[in-house]
Amino acid sequence: MMSVTSIARNKVLPFLRKSTKMQSTASLSSLVKLEEKQGYAVVSMQKTPVNSLSLEMIQALSQSLIELEKNKCKGIILTSACPGIFSAGLDIREMYQPTDDRLNQFWSSLQTLWLQLYGSKMATVALINGHAPAGGCLLAMCCDSRIMLNGKSKIGLNETKLGIVAPSWFKDTFVNTIGVRQSERALQLGSLFSPEEALKIGLVDKLVPDMETATAVAEAELKEFLQIPGMARYLSKMKIREAAIKDLSETREADLNQFVNFAKTDAVQKGLGLYLQSLAKKN
Ligand SMILES: CCCCCCCC/C=C\CC(=O)SCCNC(=O)CCNC(=O)[C@H](O)C(C)(C)COP(=O)(O)OP(=O)(O)OC[C@H]1O[C@@H](n2cnc3c(N)ncnc32)[C@H](O)[C@@H]1OP(=O)(O)O
């Protein structure tokens, strides 16, 4: 197993320099497990119970990607060690009654992670072994291919159901994945799709019946990507993604301010509070 080590800021890609203070390495590495395989790595999110994307979780994923690229890793399978859940999306508690400093760090770190993963030179396969709402769906869409475990899990951008709006770069990622019309409808309705529905609209590429098959199919899928000359594959990916990446890179500050101001409005705070209560009541 590789360790997640701290990375010197001046060695980081230019868009990462804007990132905020990183947490200590030890606290981050317990959230993400990296397993080295032959020619690639398996990145498993392991923040129980639901892999919610807290500031620390986002930074752990970011540092893992930096570490893997530094080690010349060519491809990853991004998956979850939490049974039944790929990721529950952004940690809602980060947005509910936040301090300004933490909220700023949280969003800025998320921007960084998206820029890294969506623009990664590595070949990336998401093995979606459970629910993937909102930010969980975003993580999966950042990958080059999505394999989903068939069953009761749901995937999609359900932000409107929480009374919040998916920002432009979430929307761009969605449109690049499933097209304009499907995105327009699903974004408004906050649709969460079953694996069969997700396959039908192209939100995922393949379904698998069980974890044993899932691992084999994800490995085969990654190997197919890795057989293509790396530079040609990466530049082709960028033809589709570079406009969205450039857009956020150039508007990070404005996007951050918009998010912070929006998140702090009474209406959003009230909505998030009620949503957290509804999750707690379930149990
Ligand atoms: C610039 C313009 C403005 C931009 C505005 C902001 C844009 C924000 C963009 C993205 C938003 C998000 O990603 S918001 C997160 C959306 N996620 C969800 O709606 C999922 C919510 N969770 C669930 O539906 C379920 O938990 C589950 C289906 C994922 C799993 O169900 P299960 O029954 O297995 O587990 P529990 O529901 O019992 O949950 C266990 C435990 O975890 C807590 N939990 C769950 N999800 C979250 C979360 N996203 N954040 C924080 N905490 C979460 C849940 O409350 C339980 O806690 P307790 O055990 O303490 O009760």
Automatic annotation (TrEMBL):
Do you know which InterPro entries this protein is assigned to? ClpP/crotonase-like_dom_sf, Enoyl-CoA_hydra/iso
The signal peptide stretch is none
Keywords from UniProt, A to Z, are: Acetylation, Fatty acid metabolism, Isomerase, Lipid metabolism, Mitochondrion, Transit peptide
**GO biological process: any one?**
fatty acid beta-oxidation
UniProt subcellular location: Mitochondrion matrix
Which GO terms fall under molecular function for this chain's record?
delta(3)-delta(2)-enoyl-CoA isomerase activity
From which domain of life does this come? Eukaryota
Q: What's a single GO CC term here?
A: mitochondrial matrix
Q: Which Gene3D superfamilies match?
A: 2-enoyl-CoA Hydratase, Chain A, domain 1, 6.10.250.170
Task: List the pathway annotation.
Answer: Lipid metabolism; fatty acid beta-oxidation
Transit peptide: is it a keyword of this entry?
Answer: yes
Pfam families reported in the protein's UniProt record? ECH_1 (PF00378)
NAD as a keyword of this entry, yes or no, is no
Reactions it catalyzes:
(3Z)-octenoyl-CoA = (2E)-octenoyl-CoA; (3Z)-dodecenoyl-CoA = (2E)-dodecenoyl-CoA; (2E)-tetradecenoyl-CoA = (3Z)-tetradecenoyl-CoA; (3Z)-decenoyl-CoA = (2E)-decenoyl-CoA
Principal localisation:
mitochondrion
Quaternary arrangement and interactors, per the entry? Homotrimer.
- Function summary: Key enzyme of fatty acid beta-oxidation. Able to isomerize both 3-cis (3Z) and 3-trans (3E) double bonds into the 2-trans (2E) form in a range of enoyl-CoA species, with a preference for (3Z)-enoyl-CoAs over (3E)-enoyl-CoAs. The catalytic efficiency of this enzyme is not affected by the fatty acyl chain length.
Query: What is this protein's name?
Result: Enoyl-CoA delta isomerase 1, mitochondrial
Q: Which organism is it from?
A: Daphnia pulex (Water flea)
